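PROTEIN DESIGN WORKSHEET
SECTION A - STRUCTURE
LENGTH: 114
TOKENS:
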């Protein structure tokens, strides 16, 4: 129901753009966001954005990542610039509807390595 794409291998300092589209069966999405997880760590919040456009970021990505969304397309994006090896993780998109339904997409792997 949430289809993520855009992951891949990039060199340190490079950029990637992740996309996540919600299927037509998902309505009234309030918050959309991106989380990431490595084998060593629990899943952590990267960034969120409300239907009104308010966004939040984890401190380690502020100034480098930008979250945006297209409400008409039920799609959320994550522009990742100045990538670092520590950004390597599986990135998951998430959507929470106004009815408190919590939906996860499949992960997309981002690898930052030279």
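SECTION B - SEQUENCE
RESIDUE ASSIGNMENT:
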């Amino acid at each position: 129901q949430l289809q993520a794409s855009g992951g891949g291998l990039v060199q340190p300092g490079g950029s990637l753009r992740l996309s996540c589209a919600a299927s037509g069966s998902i309505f009234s999405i309030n918050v959309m966001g991106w989380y990431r997880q490595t084998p060593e760590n629990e899943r952590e919040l990267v960034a969120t954005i409300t239907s009104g456009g308010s966004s939040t970021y984890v401190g380690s990505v502020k100034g480098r990542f930008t979250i945006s969304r297209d409400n008409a397309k039920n799609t959320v994006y994550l522009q990742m610039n100045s990538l670092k090896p520590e950004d390597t993780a599986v990135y998951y998109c998430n959507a929470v509807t106004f009815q408190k339904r919590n939906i996860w997409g499949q992960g997309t792997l981002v690898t930052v390595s030279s």
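SECTION C - NOTES
The chain has a mean pLDDT of 94.
The chain is about 0% helix and 55% strand.
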